[in-house]
Design a protein that fits this description.
Blueprint (H helix, E strand, L loop, with lengths): L1 E2 L6 H18 L3 E9 L2 E10 L2 E5 L3 H13 L10 E7 L5 E6 L14 H10 L9 H40 L17
Antiparallel strand pairs: 1-6, 2-3, 2-5, 3-4, 5-6
Helix pairs in contact: 1-2, 3-4
């Protein structure tokens, strides 16, 4: 894990810190911990607060939650992409938001099983990475999805060619005697 400290994310991160600092006292908690697992368009956020020495699961207020979702994109790095896991925390006593991130782990989202191949491919589309920053699990899933993309593209091309062939056959048939006496075809209005 690495600590995030990019200059580009300062205003987004600062806004989120201010929102958490304002919300935390309202809960009566001494600490908040937020774990954010995300890939492409899929994510899972778990939030806990410490109240009277007891850890309680909570949902962030809407405004705080929306601000949090902006952090990841603002912290994306041109070489290693966007992080896939982040732990954010704040002690109410100091009001400072801390963050640890992991760019290489396979995120766990809702215990629904492993990340889908398409999510890994989409992640690389949204946040490209230098080859040394693409973990093996992501490369394998993205490559598998690329095969699916290529098969779909071949199928679409075959369908386009088939439709074009049918249109050409119809056009040729209409051009060869359509509406002529004894052809068995009835001319359309304007064709006669």
């Amino acid at each position: 894990m690495s600590i995030v400290s990019g200059a580009d994310d300062i205003s987004v991160f600062s806004k989120f810190q201010e929102l958490v600092r304002g919300w935390l006292p309202e809960t009566g908690a001494t600490r908040v911990d937020i774990e954010y697992n995300v890939i492409a368009l899929t994510g899972d956020v778990m939030t806990w607060i410490m109240v009277d020495g007891e850890r309680k699961s909570v949902h962030l207020p809407r405004e705080v939650s929306f601000a949090m979702h902006d952090i990841r994109g603002s912290q994306a790095d041109p070489h290693r992409g966007a992080w896939l896991y982040s732990h954010l925390w704040m002690e109410a006593s100091d009001g400072v938001l801390h963050q640890e991130c992991d760019w290489m782990c396979e995120p766990v989202i809702d215990d629904d099983g492993p990340v889908m191949d398409g999510d890994a491919a989409l992640e690389l589309d949204y946040f490209p990475r230098d080859p040394e920053w693409i973990p093996e699990w992501m490369a394998t899933k993205a490559a598998a999805h690329q095969k699916v993309r290529e098969a779909r593209a071949r199928r679409r091309q075959r369908d386009r060619e088939r439709r074009a062939g049918k249109k050409a056959e119809v056009a040729q048939a209409e051009g060869n005697g359509a509406g002529e006496p004894g052809s068995g075809r009835v001319g359309r209005s304007g064709d006669e």
